[in-house]
Amino acid sequence: MGQATDRKVTEIEQTRRRIEVDLRDLEERLPPPLRSTKALLGVAFTSTALMMLLLRALRSKRSDRASAEVVVRIVREDD
What we know:
Elements: H1 2-29, H2 32-64
């Protein structure tokens, strides 16, 4: 059973290497302006996601504060 496992691990490593080489080849084929756009979009999406997480954390901290409860009593006076 150890040999079968070793074979599978070797196959997985070879497949990973082949995929990495293919991805590098595809990235090299992209025209430079498209590569720059891709990088800028990645930065924009990442910064947007981080900002959303930050705002969410800040909002949850605001709701954790002790709030003053206001009680209004309406008294009806019958004459």
